[in-house]
Amino acid sequence: MMEQLLNGNFNEYIAILIFAFILIFSYTLNSLKIKLREKINFFHIYVVLIIVIIIIWKLWPDIWLQKIETITIIVLLIFFSIMPEGLSDKAIIKVGVFDGSFTKFKELAIENISSKKCTKIIFYLRTNASISMIIKEPPDTVKEFIMNNTTLKHLYKEK
Protein backbone atom coordinates (compact mmCIF):
# COMPACT_ATOMS: atom_id res chain seq x y z
CA MET A 1 0.00 0.00 0.00
CA MET A 2 2.78 2.46 0.93
CA GLU A 3 4.71 1.48 -2.20
CA GLN A 4 1.71 2.36 -4.34
CA LEU A 5 1.42 5.73 -2.64
CA LEU A 6 5.14 6.39 -3.12
CA ASN A 7 4.95 5.37 -6.77
CA GLY A 8 2.05 7.74 -7.38
CA ASN A 9 -0.60 5.05 -7.96
CA PHE A 10 -3.09 6.39 -5.48
CA ASN A 11 -6.12 6.94 -7.75
CA GLU A 12 -8.00 4.16 -5.98
CA TYR A 13 -7.45 5.87 -2.63
CA ILE A 14 -8.65 9.19 -4.02
CA ALA A 15 -11.83 7.47 -5.27
CA ILE A 16 -12.38 5.93 -1.83
CA LEU A 17 -11.84 9.32 -0.15
CA ILE A 18 -14.31 10.96 -2.53
CA PHE A 19 -16.82 8.20 -1.82
CA ALA A 20 -16.35 8.63 1.96
CA PHE A 21 -16.71 12.41 1.67
CA ILE A 22 -19.95 12.14 -0.30
CA LEU A 23 -21.26 9.52 2.14
CA ILE A 24 -20.57 11.80 5.12
CA PHE A 25 -21.89 14.85 3.24
CA SER A 26 -25.13 13.15 2.24
CA TYR A 27 -25.68 11.73 5.74
CA THR A 28 -25.14 15.16 7.31
CA LEU A 29 -27.36 16.85 4.75
CA ASN A 30 -30.04 14.21 5.22
CA SER A 31 -30.06 14.83 8.97
CA LEU A 32 -30.22 18.60 8.44
CA LYS A 33 -32.82 18.34 5.69
CA ILE A 34 -35.76 18.93 8.01
CA LYS A 35 -34.22 22.14 9.37
CA LEU A 36 -33.14 23.40 5.96
CA ARG A 37 -36.26 22.60 3.93
CA GLU A 38 -37.67 26.09 4.16
CA LYS A 39 -34.37 27.80 3.35
CA ILE A 40 -32.66 25.71 0.65
CA ASN A 41 -33.89 24.62 -2.73
CA PHE A 42 -32.54 21.10 -3.15
CA PHE A 43 -32.24 21.58 -6.91
CA HIS A 44 -29.28 23.88 -6.17
CA ILE A 45 -27.61 21.08 -4.22
CA TYR A 46 -27.96 18.73 -7.20
CA VAL A 47 -26.39 21.37 -9.45
CA VAL A 48 -23.47 21.87 -7.04
CA LEU A 49 -22.88 18.12 -6.79
CA ILE A 50 -22.90 17.77 -10.58
CA ILE A 51 -20.36 20.60 -10.84
CA VAL A 52 -18.16 18.91 -8.21
CA ILE A 53 -18.35 15.61 -10.11
CA ILE A 54 -17.37 17.37 -13.37
CA ILE A 55 -14.41 19.10 -11.67
CA ILE A 56 -13.19 15.79 -10.23
CA TRP A 57 -13.64 14.16 -13.64
CA LYS A 58 -11.51 16.87 -15.28
CA LEU A 59 -8.79 16.72 -12.60
CA TRP A 60 -8.55 12.92 -12.33
CA PRO A 61 -10.04 11.33 -15.48
CA ASP A 62 -8.42 7.94 -14.81
CA ILE A 63 -10.43 7.57 -11.57
CA TRP A 64 -13.63 7.54 -13.60
CA LEU A 65 -12.28 4.99 -16.06
CA GLN A 66 -11.05 2.57 -13.38
CA LYS A 67 -13.84 2.88 -10.85
CA ILE A 68 -17.15 2.80 -12.72
CA GLU A 69 -18.82 0.79 -9.96
CA THR A 70 -17.68 3.31 -7.33
CA ILE A 71 -19.08 6.17 -9.38
CA THR A 72 -22.38 4.31 -9.81
CA ILE A 73 -22.64 3.80 -6.05
CA ILE A 74 -21.84 7.48 -5.43
CA VAL A 75 -24.51 8.65 -7.88
CA LEU A 76 -27.13 6.31 -6.38
CA LEU A 77 -26.15 7.41 -2.88
CA ILE A 78 -26.53 11.07 -3.81
CA PHE A 79 -29.85 10.45 -5.54
CA PHE A 80 -31.47 8.51 -2.72
CA SER A 81 -30.05 10.36 0.27
CA ILE A 82 -30.63 13.93 -0.85
CA MET A 83 -33.86 13.32 -2.74
CA PRO A 84 -36.24 15.92 -1.27
CA GLU A 85 -39.20 14.27 0.43
CA GLY A 86 -38.95 11.41 -2.02
CA LEU A 87 -40.82 8.56 -0.39
CA SER A 88 -42.66 10.34 2.38
CA ASP A 89 -45.69 8.75 3.99
CA LYS A 90 -47.13 12.17 4.76
CA ALA A 91 -49.60 13.93 2.53
CA ILE A 92 -48.62 16.55 -0.02
CA ILE A 93 -51.57 18.78 -0.76
CA LYS A 94 -51.88 20.32 -4.20
CA VAL A 95 -54.22 23.28 -4.04
CA GLY A 96 -56.06 24.71 -7.02
CA VAL A 97 -55.51 27.99 -8.84
CA PHE A 98 -54.80 30.96 -6.58
CA ASP A 99 -56.12 34.05 -8.32
CA GLY A 100 -56.49 36.48 -5.44
CA SER A 101 -59.58 34.93 -3.93
CA PHE A 102 -60.21 31.70 -2.13
CA THR A 103 -63.10 30.58 -4.30
CA LYS A 104 -60.92 28.45 -6.56
CA PHE A 105 -59.57 26.22 -3.81
CA LYS A 106 -60.95 22.72 -3.84
CA GLU A 107 -62.94 21.50 -0.86
CA LEU A 108 -60.82 18.37 -0.84
CA ALA A 109 -57.70 20.42 -0.16
CA ILE A 110 -59.40 22.23 2.72
CA GLU A 111 -60.45 18.91 4.23
CA ASN A 112 -57.00 17.37 3.79
CA ILE A 113 -55.17 20.33 5.25
CA SER A 114 -57.13 19.86 8.46
CA SER A 115 -56.25 16.18 8.70
CA LYS A 116 -52.95 16.99 10.48
CA LYS A 117 -51.00 14.84 8.00
CA CYS A 118 -50.07 17.57 5.56
CA THR A 119 -46.42 18.62 5.41
CA LYS A 120 -46.36 20.47 2.11
CA ILE A 121 -48.83 22.62 0.22
CA ILE A 122 -48.38 23.60 -3.42
CA PHE A 123 -50.28 26.65 -4.64
CA TYR A 124 -50.68 26.99 -8.39
CA LEU A 125 -50.74 30.62 -9.49
CA ARG A 126 -52.45 32.11 -12.51
CA THR A 127 -49.09 32.69 -14.17
CA ASN A 128 -48.42 28.93 -14.42
CA ALA A 129 -45.97 29.28 -11.57
CA SER A 130 -46.37 27.58 -8.23
CA ILE A 131 -45.47 28.32 -4.65
CA SER A 132 -44.49 25.35 -2.56
CA MET A 133 -44.77 25.69 1.21
CA ILE A 134 -43.57 23.23 3.79
CA ILE A 135 -45.54 23.54 6.99
CA LYS A 136 -45.00 22.32 10.53
CA GLU A 137 -48.49 22.67 11.99
CA PRO A 138 -51.34 22.36 9.49
CA PRO A 139 -53.93 25.13 9.95
CA ASP A 140 -57.66 24.51 9.99
CA THR A 141 -58.31 26.16 6.64
CA VAL A 142 -56.36 27.23 3.60
CA LYS A 143 -57.36 30.86 4.22
CA GLU A 144 -55.90 30.75 7.73
CA PHE A 145 -52.67 29.34 6.33
CA ILE A 146 -52.35 32.05 3.69
CA MET A 147 -53.19 34.90 6.06
CA ASN A 148 -50.54 33.68 8.51
CA ASN A 149 -47.90 33.34 5.80
CA THR A 150 -45.98 36.47 4.83
CA THR A 151 -44.97 35.10 1.42
CA LEU A 152 -48.53 34.39 0.35
CA LYS A 153 -50.26 37.24 2.18
CA HIS A 154 -49.25 39.88 -0.36
CA LEU A 155 -50.84 37.78 -3.14
CA TYR A 156 -54.22 37.77 -1.46
CA LYS A 157 -56.64 40.54 -2.36
CA GLU A 158 -60.01 40.54 -0.65
CA LYS A 159 -62.80 40.89 -3.21
From TrEMBL:
The chain crosses the membrane at residues 12-29, 41-57, 63-83. It comes from the Bacteria. Keywords: Membrane, Transmembrane, Transmembrane helix. The keyword Membrane applies. This is Uncharacterized protein. It comes from Lactobacillus mulieris.
